[in-house]
Amino acid sequence: MSLRPAWLTFRRYAAATTGMTLTLFALGVYTAATGSGLACQAQWPLCSDQLIPAMTINPDFIEWFHRVWAMVTGFLIIGVAGWSWIDSLDRRTRIAATLAVAILPVQIAVGAITVTIGGLVPGGYTVSTHAAHLIVALCIFTLLGLTTVWGGDRPASARLLRVALGVAVAGILASAVFSRAVPLLTYSPGGQAAFYIAGLSAHLGLVATLVVATEAKEGAVSGVDASTARTVRRLAASSMGTLVVTLLLGRDLVLYTVAWQRANLVALALALALAASAAWVLRGADATTGRSTPVGGD
Fold it and tell me: Which regions span the lipid bilayer (predicted)?
């Protein structure tokens, strides 16, 4: 007899873990943007010689809370991998979940270096450790997204493909509101966190799009022909590549001059145009195959 409640499926657990990781990403950005990562006097895992700092909103607490959230999320990620093997899920799901756990120690080590060795460098974090921390986190997030999409009982469908593209387009549009490339709002610490929540949601939508489009290309998804799936996959992959550029430029990895701002704006516009084109191609294919319900009849 299983002690697990019936509503707690592997896909829901993996999705919740992916959501925790997205939140961790935003917390990390907020922590870095406020300078709180350097508040613990270059100590890890202690914070200003304390295991638990004062529970008030101050730089020490922000950094400590980020570390606690990271620890809980790390255990959840390990749980995803363990569950995938215990339930003998398909090979690709187990591989994605296991790889997420395999590179988790790298992320922990880079994070520790960022606030110790990197934090001792005058002027803040070093670009190299900051970039590595961001890239490894994005890899873990992507692997968890793949695990979530692959690890369910329900097969991929045309509806899932449409929803995934909708999330991608909406996420890119939302990220543009907070992006430093579009001077609508001040690129404050809170705005930076919001930018990454929206951008990573779009990234996750594109990951799901690539998975479903690949299966549709192989004939495993009804309602989507191979030609349409191939086009959608290419457009989504290109959109993902340009979106990742905007995510990298959202951090202080380069001297953000006017030229870099224009490059960022072009990448953001391309990501949106490519994702919207993929949605348009899919919509056109739906209309051609007569998936819309006729008026006044069956």
Answer: 21-44, 64-86, 98-125, 131-151, 163-182, 194-214, 235-259, 265-282
Average pLDDT (76-85) is 95
Read off the pTM. 0.87
d(CA 215, CA 180): 36
Question: What's the rounded Cα separation, in Å, for the pair 194 and 250?
Answer: 11
SS3 47: strand
CA–CA distance, 277 with 274 (Å, rounded to integer): 5
Topology (CATH level 3) of domain 155-288: Four Helix Bundle (Hemerythrin (Met), subunit A) (1.20.120)
Peptide bond preceding 122 in cis form (omega within 30 of 0): no
SS3 assignment for 179-234: CCCCCCCCCCHHHHHHHHHHHHHHHHHHHHHHHHHHHHHCCCCCCCCHHHHHHHHH
